[in-house]
Amino acid sequence: MPPGGPTVHKSTSAGGLPPQAIKAIPVRHYGRWISAVLVLGVLSLIGVAFANADVNWNVIPDYLFFDTIVRGAANTLLITVLSMTVGVVLGIVLAVMRLSKNPVTSTVAWLYIYLFRGTPVLVQLFLWYNLALIFPVLNLGFYKDEMTDVMTPFLAALLGLGLNEAAYMAEICRAGIQSVDEGQTEASHALGLTGTQTMRRIVLPQAMRVIVPPTGNEFINMLKTSSLAYAIQYQELLKAATDISSRTLAVMEMLFVASIWYLFLTSIFSIGQYYLERRFARGATRNLPPTPLQKIRANLTRLSHRERVA
Amino acid sequence: MSNMIKTSGHPMVKAEGVHKSFGLVPVLKGIDLEVQPQEVFCLVGPSGSGKSTFLRCINHLEKINAGRLSVDGELVGYRERGDRLYELKDREVAAKRRDIGMVFQRFNLFPHMTALGNVMEAPIQVKGESKSVARERALKLLDRVGLADKAHSYPTQLSGGQQQRVAIARALAMQPKLMLFDEPTSALDPELVGEVLDVMRGLAEDGMTMIVVTHEMGFAREVGDALVFMDDGVVVEAGHPREVLTNPQHERTKAFLSKVL
Ligand SMILES: Nc1ncnc2c1ncn2[C@@H]1O[C@H](COP(=O)(O)OP(=O)(O)O)[C@@H](O)[C@H]1O
Ligand SMILES: [Mg+2]
């Protein structure tokens, strides 16, 4: 309702005429009804198909909180968080390098992004996992060990997923940094802040507003992409599920179990993403958008208010 | 008052044959001028004449190509040893900028910080001041520009005039010896121009050395101690604001003034 609404209302009643509620035939939305019927039809067909399918539904709740499944989910979460940490930190470094005036650092960053974005992540996982084939011994001077002992499935997964992610994060961060107005850098320099201080205190915090939303998507993607680590024996969710199905032959059932966990984890992250975006919108808009909780509370008060009026 | 001080010591800013080009395009074609301590020095001229570029050269946001430019007796951006010039490191350039405050046409406040945060940032980061010291001075400065009650507002919650006054307070927080103003009121609605000019007038009265690029001829006449008319990268005419504004000698000055007055 426009803010002027009630005033107009008052002036008419002041003129002596009681305001008359509008009685009009509402537009009929036939399309909505037809599509609703169609969707219900298709859904029930799918439902019937699954009900008759050879699925042993009972085992799904049994395995949902099975020991190895829960540990697999925890490992999926662990490798996702760690790989994203590597990706974000290295991505920011690469983005700053890419934008630096130094031609050596910017070329190095360009080459890194070119190599790691240009090859499939599954291939990269296999490369790390099989590194012992070309470097049988890892010798860091202060540390020396057999490569097969060092390059565990966990480390190979972390390197494969994290370093690949860094290339994508670098491009996201670069776009974010470039989105910050040049006047900001100029004002910061004019105050005497050094280039590093300007990047850390002025540019990056503002770039975050542009960086955070796609990073949230990357996080959710990583949750799912981490399932590729099953190919190099990392004990994540999909590996845990297939290990069970290879024993029990409940192949589809275990895939459903894994899917339920993936959905749960991605939902949690989506909520986190929402709050993070809100945090970095600070100063960009006059008023922050309400959180879902605030929205619910506002709707509830409005409802009860309406009831009292009625 | 400023006339008395003019005779003592070296000038605050001294430009001798300053040239600057962007690529092959010359923008400053030999600027000569002197700004005395405690002087309000007005720089006027048509758009594109190189006023902003000259200001930016003074705090080394741009590098000059030829000539000499010094602030408070020290070369900008170089160290002179014998008859050789050595470029200053980024860190040294940054250190020199802390003594020169700059106020921009588009304010350039940091949008992710409150007004108070904006004013506290440089003293803490650059001078390593403690939070409490920086905060105390920031609050005093915000009070001085009439914004004590807006300390915790973000820039988007302030009017243009308020933002520009915060920007002035931010520059003053570094206790500069020279303030550069690049068309500080050009982006403001007409009714907000006065509040910013009032703050600048107060600064002038307190003896701050100021270089002001402006189209506010009233301000120049009333507050200015010297005025330079620039066109196409050269100084066309210089003198006391009242003389230049009421009795311009050059055709180009006359043509420009007839448009802005
Ligand atoms: N970074 C830059 N690169 C190329 N040309 C520039 C740059 N900055 C300014 N110029 C040019 O220099 C000239 C003078 O600009 P400026 O100093 O902003 O003039 P004013 O402030 O007097 O309007 C203009 O023609 C402008 O296009
Ligand atoms: Mg300009």
UniProtKB/TrEMBL annotation, chain B:
- What EC number(s) does this enzyme carry? 7.4.2.1
Q: Which organism is it from?
A: Wenjunlia tyrosinilytica
What is stated as this protein's family in its record? Belongs to the ABC transporter superfamily.
Q: Name one Pfam family in it.
A: ABC_tran
Protein name as annotated: ABC-type polar-amino-acid transporter
Every copy of the ABC transporter domain together lies at: 13-257
> What PROSITE patterns is this protein classified in?
ABC_TRANSPORTER_1, ABC_TRANSPORTER_2
What is catalysed by this protein? a polar amino acid(out) + ATP + H2O = a polar amino acid(in) + ADP + phosphate + H(+)
- Per UniProt, the enzyme's principal EC class comes to translocase
Keywords for this protein: ATP-binding, Nucleotide-binding, Transport
The cross-references to CDD domains, in alphabetical order and at most eight, read: ABC_HisP_GlnQ
The protein's GO terms of the molecular function aspect are: ATP binding; ATP hydrolysis activity; ATPase-coupled polar amino acid-transporter activity
